[in-house]
Amino acid sequence: MIKLKVGILGATGYTGIELLKALDSHPNVNIIFLGAHNVVGKTAINFISNLKNFGNIKIKRNENIKNYELDVIFSCLPHGELAKNLKKFKIKKETNIIDLSADFRLPDKIHNKWYEKRPKLIDAKNFKYVLPEISKNVAKGNIANPGCYATSILLGLSPLAKDINKKNIIVDTKSGVSGAGKSNKAEHIFNEANENLSTYAVGSHKHKPEIEYILKKNFKSDINLLMVPHLLPITRGILSNIYIQFETKVNINSIHKKFTDFYKNQKFIKVFKDELPAIKDVQFTNNCHIGLKTFKNSNVLLVSAVIDNLIKGASGQAVQNMNLMYSLDESLGF
Predict the structure, then answer these.
(1) How confident is the model at residue 186 (pLDDT cuts 50, 70, 90)?
(2) Active-site residue among 20, 130, 134, 148?
């Protein structure tokens, strides 16, 4: 049986911890390295008390990864950190990197408009953007893992990509506070987020260009996304309500068939007709539930997609990508 030697950079953040939980029970994984910026010398069990297999691994400095021979490296570093330190880490050419940040999701021209410029000599073309349910093949190589909002919205839009070309698409999307990572911003602390619902980054959220780019690249569908993100007073989960206006009355049966055909044999996608999903139904899973609903006397379709932002929107999807890369059952680790 194949045993992959795995390392995690940024292992003590929210996504790093979720990765460690999933990989601890993965039959084809041997965790060799756990890196972090601080808490060096502590063991993994200090962060996750119920680890069965890899709880005694000590946390080392991220840069020590250069001393290890690994098959796969998961990078859970903050945005910009992997690109900045890639040369310093001296990762072996034969090692496959799965990056959970936004460092390599977009080509330079788009990336540099929305994010800090990548360092010179770092080529994003060495990373392939992979959202498993819409990517045709997951070959060995470096992977740019999709963003959390982008995952929910792309899964909600992809089956209709050919029908929405040249349209303005309104998305009302809401995320739990963990989507910001271990943030020290005032709006993310309990007293501010609890019993509150707030809007942020309207028209300027960095997942907007990611969604538009992938729809154009994969499906030749050119849309203008009107994205309105909200912060929910919960820890985890994303709910994206997508509103699409058509020229004629929407046939819900036809739309439902497009979705079920598109996601046929996809283990983690469940599609509902005339029923809307709830975040609680997907929390702590790698699933995406999609609900379809029409409005009376209207040509508008509502597509409602829910995911767990830390699992399907980050760590779970990264493990799913690794499984597919090595021709393993994609549900291993869940």
Answers:
(1) low
(2) 148
